[in-house]
Amino acid sequence: MPVKVRIAPSPTGNLHFGNARTALFNWLFAKKHGGQLILRIEDTDLERSDKKYEESIINSLRWLGIQWDGEIVRQSQRLTVYTQYLKELLASGKAFWCHHTVKELDAEKKGQMERKEAPRHLCDHKNSEKGKETGEIIRLVVDQTEEKKLSFDDAIRGTIEFNQRVISDVSLAKDLQTPLYNFAVVIDDIDMAITHVIRGEDHISNTPKQMLIYQALGKTPPIFAHLPLILGSDKSKLSKRHGALDIMDYAKDYLPEALVNFMGFLGHTYSKDILSKEEMAKEFELAKVHKSGAIFNIQKLNWINAQYVRQLAPSDFEKLIGHNVLKAAIPLMTERLEKLTDMDAFHYFWEAPSYEAELLIWKSSSREDVKKSLEASHALLEKLELNNKDELRKELDKLSAGQAGNRGLVYWPLRVALTGEKMSPDPVDIISALDKEEVLSRVRSAINKLS
RNA sequence: GGCCCUAUCGUCUAAUGGUUAGGACGGCUUUCUUUCAAGAAGCAAAUCGGAGUUCGAUUCUCCGUAGGGCCGCCA
């Protein structure tokens, strides 16, 4: 049977880092097996779902380059299908209308907790004649009277077993037209012939409930694979309080390829550190997915991003920063960039710097010495072709030999004159990247500051 | 509280029934040096604890311990 997997976000918020990683793993698995990846929007919760989130999720997936197959499926457009199954289940007595109120359910749970029992709803309406046609909510009939094991073979974790006694009469739908999560998921996975359900570990406890629904329907469940969670620095499930999480929040700082590369390593290992998702797919195996949660480590992301930034084509780099830059300046920047927003540090490549005159002074040298040094440099630069780096360096070195071998006295004031910064690429590189007139003008301006 | 999952350097992880327990990020040191960055060289840094199986266990089993997840008429 050909592999068919799905990514199933609910449009109640933007695409979160954890969901994106789940989406990526599904993509990798589908790619590896030449299978299909379906995008299914789980918008059964009318109150919380919003079209704007759906759009945002789709944009995020596109930005990441996670491609799905075929049309987008929306649960809200499949209501009649759920109704059909619901009617069947009700008619066959495998589901029933529960009449308990939320308040009663809370009280039941509280009592169970006090008695140190598993909190769950054991509904006494499942065999009663009360309100067969309507009620508060539709539930699945679950037999909790005898010890019965519910087990499945998780493709990542091996056999996981639950005792049926600890499971509620599973809530299926609020009414015939309003399915609930566990039910809608199972129906869709059956209808769409999903072969592997790859999702977060937080769904392990939903799995026995869903298995019960498969049983009631007489269907064989797909293969389940539960991914380890991504953790914040406090080792708890990554959530809003750990900082930026929406995928699009990363777009300003990171390249999508870098983010994908990083995400791929949270739960799986590959033969090299830097690789594309296509390369990952070749090596991907569910059996190799880790079992324990991984902490989101931003430093590693920064490093991976830096590797990608360096390999950027000049034209792509310009696109990223939104304006043209001097070609020769690009490698000087990409070699130093971790996050894209660090770009501002290189303002001197597109504007004349402003700085305090004091910054021009090299170590303990005098104001007069610095001024002389700059004047000598200016005279030298005027004569030279500035695009020959080797010659430039040779001449400037010769100049510093005249300053008692004090190269700092030559290069430091030049750096500041050109950039206005304490830290920058080599002045020689900057000079050859900039326009000659611009260089001379910046040096003159520095000399004036010292006058 | 109930059920379930997990456990190797700070972090991501590799490996094996016998290894000096390997790599990467980060950190530190040295080098280069006009400041960064990069590069080069190097250092520190881990098998949660206790039993059992075994000639031998970090690896297998059990029991603890710790961390995490779920326990909705959310998904």
Instruction: Look at the helices and sheets and give the structural class.
Output: alpha/beta
What's the architecture of one domain in CATH terms? Orthogonal Bundle
* Overall mean pLDDT: 94
- In DSSP terms (H or I, runs of 4 or more residues), the helix count works out at 17
- The side-by-side strand order for the widest beta sheet comes to 4-5-8-9
What summary fits the major beta sheet?
4 strands, antiparallel
The CATH class of one domain turns out to be: Mainly Alpha
In quaternary terms, these chains amount to single chain
Task: Kindly provide the radius of gyration, computed on alpha-carbon positions and rounded to a whole number of angstroms.
Answer: 32 Å
CATH T-level topology of one domain: Arc Repressor Mutant, subunit A
Strand content: 5-15%
